[in-house]
């Protein structure tokens, strides 16, 4: 018996359309009004869920602006900032969570969050979130995973940078702590990620290896990688979402705008619908087209006793005559009655 996994009103699995999560992250640019507008836009774009991140700069790191606490990487979107200043800029104030979740509920969206420490879990439990997400960078934080799993709610874990051993340890920790509904997300922790380093073929392997639902946390630009993921069995797609990349924000460079997100929702659903089953015979809708196959027809008026030749017997459309495979067999056979041009060949007319 296949176990049914459900988050809120959404059922997750191969027999259902992909569960699409819009990740707000820090794209609210420290405006609650903008955060609420993002929720509304995500709902209009067809997202099934909106996801927040629950932390403060102090729960993430130390207020130090040098050494390993300072980002000095020209390839990083956040080059030149301290970790503390970055998280202070990007965090979603905890007092915003309730109004954001209320707005989501009114618009039919599921709303949940990524906690980054146990205090965030305690806070989110007071809001009765329907699920939890563990970020790639926290997959090695087993105490956090243990606390989240102990809630008994579905847990989604991103696997960016993780080895098989680290994923296995996280999965065992979650299950041992009470998690019964687990989703792993293939993820590449570069921002943005490229299709070339997405390695979507990992998805079916991960499903078989860990025996759970598997999806994609996608940092690539566009929708091609997400569609490929669905084609390889992904049942969850997570993408960062913003109102406009031009407005800036910590994650705006690799976030989707509303029109793009609508395309993501529509095209991943089409990709899922196209998977179907293994089938070789014509489907019900195809049977109407069988008439347009080629078949054997008389192409000149013939008299009783005339021989079939390459001049008066051809393989043409439509498909109401004998199949073309009998063409050579019929050559030089004599017709047993007068036959008009345009007559479909049948066995009863020769011999």
Automatic annotation (TrEMBL):
A UniProt-annotated Pfam family: NeuB
Domain of life: Archaea
Gene3D superfamilies according to UniProt: Aldolase class I (3.20.20.70), Antifreeze-like/N-acetylneuraminic acid synthase C-terminal domain (3.90.1210.10)
SUPFAM superfamilies: AFP III-like domain, Aldolase
Domain AFP-like stretches: 295-351
GO terms assigned for molecular function: N-acylneuraminate-9-phosphate synthase activity
InterPro entries: AFP_Neu5c_C_sf (IPR036732), Aldolase_TIM (IPR013785), PseI-like (IPR051690), PseI/NeuA/B-like_N (IPR013132), Pseudaminic_synth_PseI (IPR020030), SAF (IPR013974), SAF_AFP_Neu5Ac (IPR006190), SAF_PseI/NeuA/NeuB (IPR057736)
CDD domains: SAF_NeuB_like
Protein name: Pseudaminic acid synthase
Organism listed in the record: Methanospirillum stamsii
Gene label: pseI
């Amino acid at each position: 018996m296949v176990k049914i996994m459900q988050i809120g009103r959404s059922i997750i699995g191969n027999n259902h359309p992909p569960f699409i999560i819009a990740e707000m992250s820090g794209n609210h640019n420290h405006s609650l009004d903008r955060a609420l507008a993002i929720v509304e836009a995500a709902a209009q774009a067809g997202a099934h869920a909106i996801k927040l991140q629950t932390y403060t700069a102090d729960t993430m790191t130390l207020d130090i602006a040098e050494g390993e606490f300072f980002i000095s990487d020209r390839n990083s979107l956040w080059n030149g900032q301290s970790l503390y200043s970055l998280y202070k800029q990007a965090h979603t104030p905890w007092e915003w969570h309730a109004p954001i979740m209320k707005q989501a509920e009114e618009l039919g969206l599921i709303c949940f969050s990524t906690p980054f420490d146990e205090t965030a879990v305690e806070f989110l439990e007071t809001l009765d979130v329907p699920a939890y997400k563990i970020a790639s960078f926290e997959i090695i934080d087993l105490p956090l995973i243990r606390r989240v799993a102990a809630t008994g709610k579905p847990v989604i874990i991103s696997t960016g940078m993780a080895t098989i051993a680290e994923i296995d340890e996280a999965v065992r920790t979650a299950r041992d702590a009470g998690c019964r509904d687990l989703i792993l997300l293939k993820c590449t922790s570069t921002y943005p990620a490229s299709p070339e380093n997405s390695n979507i073929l990992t998805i079916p392997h991960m499903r078989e290896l860990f025996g759970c639902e598997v999806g994609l946390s996608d940092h690539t630009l566009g929708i091609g990688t997400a569609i490929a993921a669905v084609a390889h069995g992904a049942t969850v797609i997570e993408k960062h979402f913003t109102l406009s990349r031009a407005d800036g924000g910590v994650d705006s460079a690799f976030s989707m705008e509303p029109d793009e997100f609508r395309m993501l929702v529509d095209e991943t659903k089409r990709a899922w619908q196209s998977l179907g089953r293994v089938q070789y015979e014509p489907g019900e809708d195809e049977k109407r087209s069988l008439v347009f196959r080629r078949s054997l027809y008389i192409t000149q008026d013939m008299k009783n006793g005339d021989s079939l030749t390459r001049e008066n017997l051809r393989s043409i459309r439509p498909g109401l005559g004998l199949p073309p495979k009998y063409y050579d067999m019929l050559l030089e056979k004599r017709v047993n009655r007068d036959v008009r041009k345009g007559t479909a060949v049948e066995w009863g007319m020769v011999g």
